[in-house]
Amino acid sequence: MRAKTTITTGGHESSYNTTYVLDTERTYAELESASENKVIKAKLYKKLKYLEPIIVNRLLKRFRDQGLSHADAKTNALASTEYEKHIQGLLVAEIEYEQAKDKYEHMKILKDMRITEESSARKIINDKT
37 to each of 45, 79, 88, 101, 111, how far by Cα in Å? Predict the structure, then answer.
């Protein structure tokens, strides 16, 4: 939140300084929410990644049971719509996880920048008084 500050020294009023006032409660809530979102996205991505070989082996078994050779069964498994849907879901989960991770990291950086901006503004105001 931005706040305007008026400095008066010796009966002389200086121009307004626009400074940032850190809203710690809101900042903490936003960081906590971003962190929770990041964890959820990470768990989903890791679960889908874990399930990938299980799905391939299940499909491989299904095609082997139909009498196909191992090579043909694996080719059919990797070309199946079930595997393709899983890989697409995995890709979406990975993208969402990376975006959530980046958002959380960017929010931490922004918080640090705002703290620095607030501290610098206070120093400038205190130096003028």
Answer: 12, 33, 21, 9, 18
- The label of the residue with tokens 């890791």 reads 46
Domain boundaries, the chain: 2-128
Q: To the nearest whole number, what is the mean pLDDT of the chain?
A: 84
Q: State both tokens at 42.
A: 């990470």
Measured torsion, CA atoms of residues 90, 45, 32, 114, in degrees rounded to the nearest 10: -60
Tokens of 40: 């959820």
Average pLDDT for residues 110-117, to the nearest whole number? Answer: 84
Report the distance separating Cα 7 and Cα 13, nearest Å. 6
What's the confidence (pLDDT) of residue 79?
A: 96
Residue recorded with tokens 């139909």: 66
Task: Tell me if 59 sits within 8 A of 82, measured CB to CB.
Answer: yes
DSSP calls for 53-77? HHHHHHHHHHHHHTT--HHHHHHHH
